[in-house]
From TrEMBL:
Belongs to the ELP1/IKA1 family. Residues 258-395 form the ELP1 first N-terminal beta-propeller domain. SUPFAM superfamilies: DPP6 N-terminal domain-like. It is found in: Cytoplasm; Nucleus. Component of the elongator complex which is required for multiple tRNA modifications, including mcm5U (5-methoxycarbonylmethyl uridine), mcm5s2U (5-methoxycarbonylmethyl-2-thiouridine), and ncm5U (5-carbamoylmethyl uridine). The elongator complex catalyzes formation of carboxymethyluridine in the wobble base at position 34 in tRNAs. The chain crosses the membrane at residues 75-102. Residues 434-493, 509-660 form the ELP1 N-terminal second beta-propeller domain. Residues 12-23, 1134-1147 have a biased composition (Low complexity). GO terms for cellular component: cytosol; elongator holoenzyme complex; nucleus. Signal peptide: none annotated. This is Elongator complex protein 1. Residues 1066-1221 form the ELP1 three-helical bundle domain. Residues 1-25, 1134-1162 are annotated as: Disordered.
Amino acid sequence: SRRRRKRKRRSCTSTPRRQGAPAPRRRVTASDLSLSCLVADPNHTVMEEIIPVMILYRCVTQVNIKGVQRRTYEMCVMCFAALGSRLGAPRVFFFPVSFLAVEMRNLKLLKSLRSTELRGPGSPLRLSVRADTGSLLVASHCSITEYDPRTGQVVSEASLTAGGFLPEDGGGAVVGLQDLAELESACLSTAGGDVVLFNFNTCQLECVGSVDSGLTSMSWSPDEELVVLTTGQETIIMMTKHFEPITEVGIHQDDFGEARKVRVWNREGVLQATSEPINGLEQALCWKPSGSLIASTQRHPNKHSVVFMEKNGLLHGDFTLPFSKDHAKVRDLLWNSDSTVLAVWLEDLAAGEDQQVNASIQLWVAGNYHWYLKQSLDFGRDSRKAPVCVCWDPERPLRLHVVTRGWTSVTYDWGWATERSPGTDAAADANVAVIDGDKILVTNFRQCVVPPPMCSFELQLTSPVNQVTFLCQPQGTNRLAALTSDGQISVYAQGESCDRDVRDAMRDPSEVEVDGVVVSAVHGSQTGTVALQLEDGQIRKLRWGEPPLLSVEDWRDASGCSINFPVPCVQTALCSISGEEYLLGLTDRSHLYAGDTELASNISSFGVCNDFLLITTHSHTCRCLQLTTLSVKGLQAALASDGGQNDESLRRVERGSRIVTVVPQDTRVVLQMPRGNLETVHHRALVLAQLRKWLDSLRFRESFECMRKLRINLNLLYDHNPKVFLENMEAFITQLGSISHINLFVTELKEEDTTSTMYPRGPESSPVQTRPVSGQKKVDVVCDALRSAMESMDPNKFFLSVLTTHVKKTVPELEVALQKVHELRVNPPRAAGAVSAEEALKYLLFLVNVNDLYEHSLGTYDFDLVLMVAEKSQKDPKEYLPFLNMLKSLETNYQRYTIDKHLKRYSKALHHLSKCGEEHFHEALQLVREQKLHSEALRLYAADGAHYKALSCAYAEHLMEQQQAEQAGLLLWRCGEPVGALQAFASSSSWRNAICTAQQIPLPADQLALLARDLAEKLIEQRRFAEAALLLDQYAKDCEEAILALITGSVWEEALRLIYMHDRQDITETNLKPALLEAVGTQTAFLEAQVAAFTRHRARLAVVREQKEKARLGMLDCPDAELYSEASSVMSGSKYSQSNSRVSSRSSKNRRKAERKKLSLKEGSPMEDRALVYALGEILTTEVHGLLKALVLFQFDKQAEKLQPAYEEALQAMEAAVPEVWLTGPNSTANSIMASFQQQQRPAAPQPGRHRLSSLFIHNSSCDVCLCN
């Protein structure tokens, strides 16, 4: 090997490291690339100069601008000079850098940081950037220097000549310099063959190896794991990061010859690919960080190109540099870290009169297979200003570092910006300007959507364009200004000459001092406010006084507090939120701010148009929010929510979409997809806002066309303001004009109020009554109003629409529509353009099923009309002619009965059959029984006739089958059938009616007594003891059984009355007193059980409610936490809750019973809390008042004294628990609870024999609770 390794440490004169500098950190810029080493022409020499570029414009009006330098900063912001009311103020937009598609965006210079504090012997040779601190590493002929361009201070420095690495005469050279974050060192290589490490902490130099033949270049892999050296003997040495050798191969190999080629080796040093010989291929070579392409340059006979090759050496695209082949040479190509920008470092071949050459740097961007020249930095012919070192920042993709031969460092920061016209009226064209070298590609999105790189028209300038902006004056937003690389501003006006005031204003600009570096300026065209953003996020307001007076002040809110962005923003815009002006800002981290308030953290782009804020998010949605109706907190809440099902402010978009522009006073939003194509969407919020404006101004035609095109439900035409719509019905018909449009509107009508379901109104809109006519349905109201207006205007012209209104009604009026068609056939109109009967019938058949229309025509009993419909249908005449002929042969009433029965119109059929005479009554009775038309039948026959009696008996049979015996008995009793009525009353326990009918028959005394005993037994089974005792005493003449029934039912006072009335005091001792003592025991046991149940349910209710509260606050970690959520209460109260049709058809009593079945006391059930409340409400529903009086009467004082306090204690405990159980509030009392309940529902009257002395009524879950004392 011709390489010898040596390790030596030498003391060198150095500058100490800056105190407090951040510790280095590991940074990997690319993952494990399979191919890591590129070598171009072996005769490639070390480049010594690099030159930046500036921008150039051509225009109708041109003004030269001199660069202004103040201390070490240079500010480059393009804007219009706005003096008084003549021109708009500066306006700058910045957009995030997170997308790959850049076709509709330009590179805008945010700031340039120029420093002349860096000085040293010799000339700068190599430049690198420390990734952890952002400081610059500059290697010259004599030393290596670490320099912080932000502070203008040298952090550390070490002499290369003192250590013997470079000769003191300045004849040496540094051929490579690389920051190694993991080693906290910088690695440099010299032409003499030394590889040296410069330690940032100790500021010492260490030689880690030397090559006797010298070195020509050094390159590290992106992951800093491998280093490649090329030697003076034209070999390649590959080593690890610890400088352990891996392989050494020759650059030239025998089988490839000496032609200009590109060779690719893998990480093991094995040759992978060699390109074909490429004529004119130059030394510039740069591998794209994404690893897909290798860039180089090539001279052709007629052009100079940048070419791209794949890793296998095959050519893969190119673009032509904008100059002739012999005009300049390419010093180097440099990709930025995210592979979006390619820098081309140029130097003129021919020297000027002063024997100096011009240097420049061009920034190129690719999109849709087209390369755009976005920036051109011109450094002039002064050799001291010519760049000698150029590199991209490894952390900030759009930051470029340049060091000139005169030791001046310049740091450029760019940002992506979409330059669009700021107009807000209908005259604004929604222009978007794209820079492409010396051309400006302008697209008018109001007229067309043209995918890039195509455009509506081009503006050709004489020099490359660096910046474009539009005028912010409200009436001139289509004007465009361009700044070119030669320092000229060009102003373009569409179809008009440039005003003199524009020329004067640009030649006589106003200036104002700003304390800080301005990185963006935005102008509000409505308010005239100009907002400036400084590099640290501070916000300033530029005030315009009398020309030429300008002033800058802090941005303050309504309370006078200073407002600033927490971090710098790359895009800003002015807007008004609830009447207060705010500056919106979007950071490169996707955070959206309104002043110092963060609105959202997932925003990819945004735009302000009229009163709307439009944003795209990283969750692939586009939101459109109306700023006039929302506060800042409202915006935060809206952006944090996921949106409801019918949220008009939200729509899904393709992943990575961003906003290009919004057409003012329109509904179109232009989005650009990641792959570069454009899409136009009509955002629902913009569409509805525009529709509401049109409807308010009675522009029905524009509204209808927009709704039809964008699939907006046409019901909104009425629902927006029903009263106004009905009052302007003729204007609506006139504006629509087309019969098909009116028919389309009518056919889409439905009862749903679209302003509350599909398109809910915002909080600022007052609700509008959708049904102005009480009791009528919306569809019927609109159809009737439309038909009335059309018939008054021109019934012949709108005949088809009139038919549509009949068919569309809630109950379709098909008979009326058919009758009108029939009249049209009998009396055809003579007016020109009138609809014929055949056309009308054909249209009806289009609206209605032919079978339905045939049956409805049959229901008119007009056989001519039936034949007309049948002829237009597809029916076979053999199907309907025999049937029609049979009907014609019948008597009129029987004919109509037959038709109605065929159409299943049984009520009408019965009506016609009742007129057919005695011979058809049996058929009528059969129809009544089959179709259960008893009520209708009784109305058709006289009450004193035999037919009426037969129908009543049939009705009674039906009621008996339906378990409605009492009603059946009344019906039989009414029609003179007391025997049948007695049986019905007896089966229904209607004992009073049964006794009456029995006496009317009349029944013998013994049978009457037997009937009374039977009825009493049924009443006792139903626990109706008082009524049973009355029957036994008065009709069965059995006082003893009556008294025993009362004692069994605890009707103590009535039992005593009968005992003394019949002089049966013996029953008192034998039955009454033992029953009293037994009742005391029963009540005591019952009370204990009820108190225990109350205590148990109350404790469990507290536990359940605590669990639900924890679940609501997210404190319950069990997987079944949803069981304790409040979904149960929400579902039970929602009008959309599920219901069972069978249950809903029951009686109210059965429905309540079914609801109670849902309440389960099982622990963990969804409605356990409601079940517990219901169970607590059912406790203590008995009464003890009568028992206590009877005990006192018969001197059972001890028993009464025990029972009374026990009940009082239980009642007091339960009353104390009322606020806890029923959550009535801290100030509620028993009386207030009772009053609140009585306002909602009065309690049911107590049943006889069940009187309760109640002191407290409690209402919960539709149940009454009576606590008795």
